[in-house]
């Protein structure tokens, strides 16, 4: 049954993406930039509904009161494709620093360009990277929220943390709060797998780390608070969803926590 539901969800998910992107294109491009966020945010909400109805997966968000007004860096754990889009409805006017190649994709790239995402040539150095930072500062100055994944790439639930120093540089240069996010969607939507598992999990928004700390001290605090919440949620999520198969990293981390 899980295999059939997973196949059906994947088919409906990507069909929903393509159909909504085509059908809603006139609305998206006629609306002012910020107002046009209603189109992708409604697409996200429809995906949450589909995942609940087809797969049986639900979630709740704790700590929404910790989200500040105005500009900040939104720093989630990254385990799954789910967390690349799922929290957009709760952000006012977010943006990403992303690979410039994504802006070349027909239609999708046009959506990205309209929302003034910041493209980066990963092979670039020096002046090109300085221009990316200047563009990021300009977007933040208008009250937007930068979404950045501190570990850079998707990590399996329970995997040892590998935070990149880039977020410490952004924290130093942008002088805005950083909001850590702990969650385990990777237990229900595993990376590099088509299977989707039913169950319920929590997304925890942690208190913001205010600007002004030494970058090294900031990074230590970010790792400490995020991983402590992540460990707590891992224990709770596995306890509440005993049917969910665990990756080796989660099993190992649970053994460490129980020893």
TrEMBL record:
Q: In which pathway does it act?
A: Lipid metabolism
Q: Which SMART domains match?
A: PlsC
Domain Phospholipid/glycerol acyltransferase, residue spans:
72-186
Q: Give the transmembrane ranges.
A: 7-31
- Asked whether the UniProt record includes Amino-acid biosynthesis among its keywords, one would answer no
Output the Pfam families linked to this UniProt entry.
Acyltransferase (PF01553)
Under Gene Ontology molecular function, one entry of this record is: 1-acylglycerol-3-phosphate O-acyltransferase activity
Output one GO BP term: phosphatidic acid biosynthetic process
InterPro entries (UniProt xref): Plipid/glycerol_acylTrfase
Keywords of this entry: Acyltransferase, Membrane, Transferase, Transmembrane, Transmembrane helix
Task: Please give the name of this protein.
Answer: 1-acyl-sn-glycerol-3-phosphate acyltransferase
**What broad taxonomic lineage does this protein's source fall under?**
Bacteria, Pseudomonadati, Pseudomonadota, Alphaproteobacteria, Hyphomicrobiales
């Amino acid at each position: 049954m899980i295999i059939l539901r997973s196949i059906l969800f994947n088919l409906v998910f990507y069909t929903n993406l393509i159909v909504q992107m085509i059908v809603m294109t006139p609305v998206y491009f006629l609306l002012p930039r910020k107002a046009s966020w209603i189109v992708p945010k409604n697409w996200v909400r429809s995906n949450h509904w589909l995942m609940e109805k087809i797969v049986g997966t639900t979630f709740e968000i704790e700590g929404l009161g910790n989200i500040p007004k105005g500009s900040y860096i939104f720093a989630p754990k990254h385990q799954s494709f789910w967390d690349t889009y799922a929290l957009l409805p709760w952000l006012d006017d977010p943006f990403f620093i992303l690979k410039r190649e994504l802006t070349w994709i027909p239609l999708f790239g046009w959506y990205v360009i309209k929302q003034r995402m910041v493209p980066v040539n990963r092979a670039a150095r020096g002046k090109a990277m300085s221009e990316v930072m200047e563009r990021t500062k300009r977007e933040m100055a208008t009250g937007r929220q930068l979404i950045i994944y501190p570990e850079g790439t998707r990590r399996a639930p329970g995997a040892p943390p590998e935070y990149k120093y880039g977020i410490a540089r952004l924290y130093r240069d942008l002088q805005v709060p950083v909001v850590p996010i702990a969650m385990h969607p990777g237990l229900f939507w595993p990376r590099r797998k088509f299977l989707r598992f039913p169950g319920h999990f929590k997304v925890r928004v942690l208190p913001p780390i205010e600007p002004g700390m030494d970058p090294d001290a900031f990074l230590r605090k970010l790792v400490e608070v995020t991983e402590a919440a992540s460990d707590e949620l891992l224990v709770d999520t596995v306890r509440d969803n005993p049917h969910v198969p665990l990756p080796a990293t989660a099993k190992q981390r649970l053994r460490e926590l129980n020893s």
